[in-house]
C-alpha cells in the first residue's frame, strides 16, 4: 500500500502533508490552472477530506519503477456518486512532486466544484497560515 493511501485512509492530515514535496504541483479536476506548492496542496487535500463522504480507495496501480502511482477511488459529494483517480509521481526522495486528480461523471464533478468552491476561502487562509 502506498504511504499516501494509508495516510488518507487513516485521515491523517499531517502524514499526508509530510509526503508532499515543497515543489509539488496539484492539478485539480475542476480548476483550469494547477496549484504549485506544498502549503496550498495540503490545504486543498484537507478541504477535499471535508467534502467527500464515504471516500474509499478501491484499487492501486504502480509502475515497475515505483515512481508513478494511480489510486482509484469512490466517494459521494452532495449526494452524487463520484469515481476518480489520484495520479501521483514521486521524486528521488520518495515525496509526491506531481499530483493530478481526475473524476467522473460530469454531474459529480460539478458537485465537487461547487463544494470545493464553498471551501476555497478557508483553503486559501489555511495555505497562507502554513507559509
Give descriptors for this structure.
globular, 4 helices, alpha+beta, 131 residues, six-stranded mixed β-sheet
Would you write up a description of this structure?
This protein has four helices and six strands. With 131 residues, the chain is an alpha+beta fold. It is globular, with a radius of gyration of 14 Å. It starts with a helix and ends with a helix. The model has no long low-confidence stretch (mean pLDDT 94).
Distance between the termini: 30 Å
Strand content: 35-45%
Summarize model confidence as the mean pLDDT. Answer: 94
Low-confidence runs of at least 5 consecutive residues:
none
The secondary structure category is alpha+beta
Question: Oligomer, anyone?
Answer: single chain
Shape descriptor reads globular
Order of helices and strands: HHEEHEEEEH
Number of strands: 6
Give a quick account of the main beta sheet: strands, pairing sense, barrel closure. 6 strands, mixed
Report strand order across the widest sheet.
2-1-6-5-4-3
What's the tally of helices? 4
Q: Specify the helix fraction band.
A: 25-40%
The radius of gyration computed from the alpha-carbon positions, rounded to a whole number of angstroms, is 14 Å
